[in-house]
Specification:
The complex is a heterodimer.
Chain A (H helix, E strand, L loop, with lengths): L1 H16 L1 H27 L7 H4 L4 H8 L1 H6 L1 H9 L2 H6 L4 H30 L12 H27 L3 H26 L6 H10 L1 H7 L5 E3 H27 L1
Helix pairs in contact in A: 1-8, 2-4, 6-9, 8-9, 8-13, 9-10, 9-13, 10-11
Chain B lengths: L1 H29 L7 E3 L10 H9 L5 E8 L10 H28 L3 E5 L6 H11 L6 E8 L5 E6 H5 E4 L17 E5 L1 H13 L5 E4 L19 H9 L3 E4 L10 E7 L7 H12 L3 E5 L13 H7 L1 E10 L22 E5 L7 H5 L5 E2 L3 E5 L7 E9 L3 E3 L23 E8 L12 E6 L9 H15 L22 H32 L1
Classes of the chains: A mainly alpha, B alpha/beta.
Chain lengths: 255, 528
């Protein structure tokens, strides 16, 4: 536990001091600012129910950027960088267990990712104040959306850690992670469209439903609906990829 | 060394497969209907489907009923050129999306008994054509609800997204609430998806068409069933028709027809003859269902009592109108009771929270309003074999009005506190059945209301009560209380100045803050 905390602190500090992190934040908030402003104008012009505004704020290009690219970018250096620079030897001989190292690095990435997202809630809240929109927005779906985003990104970052543990090439780790994210987000829909009658079989449909995280996010979490079975899916997936990372990290030590 | 590495990788592979199995098992266990929960944090909890629908869907597997929802959505065409059509296309897209989300919840609760099939015209053409022919679908953007029950022919009903599931307001009917330049476009005001789909589903599950007979022979207007004047009952007839009940007139001279599910006597103004009393009593004693709806009239000759029929079932109807004190918010310094205001005749009611007819209306705090009401009184003792239960009462400040000097009912409240009390206006009577020739016996039911509530004016407010009464009497308990989610749309009102502030805050201030933070960290690292 102590080893996890030490790794967490060290990694989080390095994230906070990295110029790449601030570059991501500036780009993300710039694009998101344009998008949210245009959505507000759209809602006012076309008389769309304002309770859908927070939900719509999750269906933006900036959100896809945060889901597809950012987890891969944040986690690509977790292990690959250590191996590239040779500091992995120090890490392996340090009095920290394998799962402590993996958990610490993953927790640091998740914490930094959450810190990147948190100001978007504050922005939504700020928009309700009198100088801006002077109205109350539905924060139930916001909570559910952030929960869904947190669960999804936790799983994606667990995979990112695993990809990083497989290679010493940062770009390769990032590309593998991005490909996985793209597959997870878009492949189930493609498979469903091309499976024909088989996709309508109850258990196949259930399986595709579970893996269709993009649709699940848009139709459940973003609308303020939490299906507890999806929490198990994300939690199980996260545990699975973290387990693989620990095994991969440990296997490297032996090899 | 190589063998050891191979063993290690094999170990890794095996443990990964094992962990994958644990993940699958975890998800499978978590997806069991008994273990999964749906938490609704949506605004106004509009995504929550009614408990009646949930109960119905959860009951489907037990009854081996298969329900299919077939979606025939029109493909998105090229972007329309004018603002009206563009907005209509957006509304249709939203309705399609809302319907899909709603049906996902039906699947969530119905499990394997509920399937949803989206027929895309550009997908499997043969399958699309086969389904369209099977259900007789000739236009797009419709939902077909189909039900398969063992031993019964499959049934289906087709609903239109725009006409049945959505409520769309056209531009001429509304004010523009925003200061930004706004095109005159239609607005989606409400989504009645659950109400429409559940009603269709429930009516499909009920086989046969119950018949409601109206006996208007003792009423002032003998053509009440089709009368569209305010005190007619054409709207009620239409409501019952939409619920899958057929309405007919009856003349009690030849008894009650054998196919009668319910007999209604709306606002009788002449006392029942001995023969009519005998026919109605026999009908109820043999399991019949009777609705008696008395009212108060300015003509005292028309305010008949319950007479012999009342004695048989154990009730009497008063002759004076029931009024009720209501708070007068508009007249400062007025005496309690809205003295002099005919509003005291419009009665807000307290419902029995335990009776199936009023249970969910009471829990939903639904507003009901009775007019021209008289007091319903139970005679003591209750006749043998009759069980009585109140359905509706006034609040504790009900009073019986007297006539003023000109013979009109006085709206002035009594001065004595003892004259105020809760007055009963509706009750249900269950009557022990008489054995028929085959030895079987079925209990009869009489529902009595003593105020006007479901004529053409009242049915707009009391439609749910009327629907519940008839569904209960027709033993279609599954149809009780169809209520969609309450949807109150709210719109952003944004002035240009406000919008400018939002724009610069989001596009300039926030990214600049992060940029400044980054530069500060960079400078600190450089300087240290």
């Amino acid at each position: 536990m102590n080893g996890t905390l030490v790794t967490l602190k060290k990694e989080l500090f390095s994230y906070c001091c990295s110029p790449v992190s601030y570059l991501i934040a500036v780009l993300f908030y710039l694009v998101r600012g344009f998008e949210v402003a245009s959505i507000i104008a759209y809602f006012a012009n076309y008389q769309i129910d304002q309770d859908l505004l927070p939900t719509s704020c999750h269906n933006l290009t900036s959100t896809q950027f945060m889901v597809i690219l950012v987890p891969a970018i944040l986690t690509m250096r977790c292990f690959a960088e250590e191996r590239r620079t040779g500091s992995i030897e120090t890490l392996m001989t340090a009095p920290v267990r394998d799962h402590g190292v993996v958990l610490g690095k993953w927790l640091a990435a998740v914490t930094f990712y959450a810190l990147l997202w948190l100001p978007t809630v504050l922005l939504l809240w700020a928009l309700t104040l009198s100088p801006f929109l002077d109205t109350d927005l539905a924060f139930g779906p916001v909570f559910a959306s952030y929960l869904g985003m947190f669960l999804l990104s936790s799983m994606l970052m667990a995979f990112g850690c695993f990809a990083s543990s497989l290679t010493d090439n940062l770009m390769l780790a990032a590309i593998v992670a991005v490909l996985f994210n793209l597959c997870l987000l878009f492949l189930p829909r493609l498979v469903r469209a091309n499976l024909g009658v088989l996709a309508e079989q109850y258990y196949v449909a259930q399986l595709l439903d579970k893996f269709d995280v993009s649709t699940n996010f848009a139709q459940w979490f973003a609308r303020g609906l939490i299906d507890t079975s999806q929490i198990w899916f994300f939690a199980g997936g996260t545990a699975f990829f973290l387990f693989l990372t620990v095994q991969s990290f440990g296997a490297r030590r032996v090899a | 060394m190589r063998l050891r590495a191979l063993g290690m990788w094999t170990n890794l592979l095996l443990s990964s497969v094992l962990m994958l199995a644990v993940w699958v098992l975890l998800v499978w266990v978590g997806s069991r209907p008994a273990l999964k929960t749906l938490i609704d944090l949506s605004p106004q909890q509009r995504a929550t489907i009614d408990q009646v629908t949930v109960d119905l869907l959860k009951d489907l597997p037990r009854q081996s009923i298969e329900v299919e929802f077939h979606l025939f959505f029109e493909p998105m065409g090229p972007e329309p050129q004018d603002a009206f059509q563009q907005q209509r296309a957006r509304i249709m897209a939203r309705l399609r999306e809302l319907t899909e989300v709603l049906l996902r919840q039906y699947v969530f609760h119905g499990g394997e008994s509920v399937t949803v099939e989206n027929h895309a015209p550009f997908g499997d053409i043969a399958r699309y054509r086969e389904a369209a022919q099977r259900f007789g679908v000739t236009q797009g953007d419709v939902v077909v609800v189909a039900v398969k029950q063992s031993g019964r022919p499959p049934r289906h009903r087709t609903l239109s997204l725009e006409g049945d599931l959505g409520v769309v307001e056209v531009p001429e009917m509304r004010q523009r609430p925003t200061a930004l330049p706004t095109p005159q476009v239609p607005v989606l005001k409400d989504f009645k998806g659950e109400e429409a789909l559940s009603s269709a589903l429930k009516s499909l599950l009920v086989q046969g068409t119950p018949t409601v007979y109206f006996f208007s022979g003792n009423s002032g207007n003998t053509n009440q069933m089709t009368s569209v004047v305010p005190d007619g009952y054409a709207q009620l007839t239409r409501l019952l028709d939409s619920m899958g009940l057929q309405c007919r007139e009856v003349d009690l001279r030849n008894g009650v027809p054998k196919d009668a599910s319910v007999v209604v006597v709306p606002e009788p103004q002449r006392q029942f003859t001995e023969g009519q009393v005998r026919v109605l009593h026999d009908y109820v004693a043999h399991g019949g269902r009777l609705v008696l709806n008395y009212s108060w009239s300015g003509n005292s000759d028309w305010n008949i009592g319950a007479g012999e029929l009342g004695k048989l079932f154990g009730f009497e109807v008063g002759s004076r109108p029931v009024y009720h004190l209501i708070p007068d918010a508009h007249t400062p310094g007025s005496t309690p009771g809205l003295d002099g205001n005919p509003g005291v005749g419009k009665l807000d009611l307290v419902m029995n929270p335990n009776h199936p007819v009023t249970l969910r209306l009471a829990r939903g705090m639904q507003n009901l309003q009775f007019d021209a009401a008289r007091e319903l009184v139970w005679t003591d003792p209750a006749p043998a074999g009759v069980r009585r239960e109140p359905l509706l009462t006034t609040g504790p400040w009900g009073w019986l009005a007297t006539r003023d000097g000109q013979g009109f009912p006085s709206y002035t409240a009594p001065r004595s506190q003892s004259e105020f009390k809760s007055r009963m206006l509706g009750a249900a009577f269950e009557v022990d059945g008489t054995p028929a020739a085959d030895g079987k016996k079925q209990d009869g039911i009489v529902v009595v209301f003593t105020g006007v509530f479901c004529n053409n004016v009242g049915v707009g407010i009391n439609a749910d009560l009327a629907a519940n009464v008839f569904n209960w009497l027709c033993e279609r308990r599954v149809l009780l209380d169809i209520r969609g989610s309450s949807y109150v749309a709210r719109y952003l009102k944004v002035q240009q100045q406000q919008f400018d502030r939002v724009f610069w805050f989001l596009v300039l201030a926030v990214p600049a803050a992060f940029l400044a933070g980054g530069l500060f960290v960079f400078w600190r690292r450089r300087s240290s």
